Amino acid sequence: MSASKRTTSVDVAKRAGVSRTTVSFVLNNVPDVSISPSTRQRVLEAAKSLNYHPDMAGRKLASGKSNTIGLVIRQNPEQVFADAFLLQVVLGVEGAAAERGFHVLLKPVEPDDQHGYARLIHENYVDGILVSGPREDDAEIIRLHKQGVPIMLMGQLPDTDIPFVDINAIAGAAAAVYHLIGQGHRRIAMITNAPLTYTSAQQRRDGYHQALKQANLEIHDAYLQEGNYTPASGFAAMTRLLELTPRPTAVFVASDVVAMGAIQAIKRASLRVPDDVAVVGFDDVPLAEYYDPPLTTIRLPAYGLGWAAGDRLVRMIEGDNLDTPRLLLDSELVVRQSSVKN
Q1: 241 by DSSP, 3-state: which?
Q2: Are 296 and 262 in contact (CB under 8 A)?
Q3: Cβ–Cβ under 8 Å, residues 75 and 229
Q4: Checking DSSP bridges between strand 188-191 and strand 224-225, what pairing results, if any?
Q5: What is the pTM of this model?
Q6: pLDDT, position 56
Q7: For residue 241, which phi and psi values (nearest 5 degrees)?
Q8: 122 backbone φψ class: left, alpha, beta (φ>0; ψ -120 to 50)
Q9: Does any domain span residue 182?
Q10: 265 and 203 belong to one structural domain
């Protein structure tokens, strides 16, 4: 390599045979992201051999920019405060932005607000938008994307080319249901994390259906109930499921926070978890391990999700070409007492 040319993360990625995102995860020591020891060592050795050091000056935007990204949360304030998973994601976004000299402006935009993004751009002067929890009916974000506004999704909008970072939610949800099937359950219900207008809820439902079909189990429409980010919504949905005849013997709840409300409904009905109704959640929020009973769940790299999305949005703003505009992160089944009988 020419001595006059500064080594970049692209060079490190090529030398190590990995993506730039993986290089960012390793060199910034981002927690809770699944990277094998051999891959991590390969990246570190590549960076050392190339004498790579991040160019902080090169991370600053040209004069006239705000060095601020807008983090849009597509929930109302009550839902935001109830969502324990979201806090870890926000911390990840903040960490990635700070590493590149950017600030983060957090902005809840309620589902019925049709002009929240435009106001964020024009009134708060942010350089790009990161959207958590996009909805399939979100026409404004598609319009702004077509106008050239830098946009990164945490989640997906099908049939668009908007870049995203997401969890492989279909595979994660299927793993949760396969676990319940493996415990002998055949009447397995689901409570979504959010209304089905949200693509994250659709993907987790699709994984639920996939597992049932694979096991040749019948899909009952009444066994699918909608949650809405909060424990109260889980309590209400579980109460409806317990009124069914026959009632389900297990439930996959696509959010730990919602699952905690569902467990309270089971207890309120004088039933036991998991003896009468087994429960599997989704997210692995910090409280899940210490709940009563400890919650079996799908562990997601919450901080890593936020970090990757924030890092990639800033790179877009700075004019970098992403190695891949669509990034899916893996999840992991964590088995605890809420789904396994003694």
Answers
A1: helix
A2: no
A3: yes
A4: parallel
A5: 0.77
A6: 41
A7: -65, -35
A8: alpha
A9: yes
A10: yes
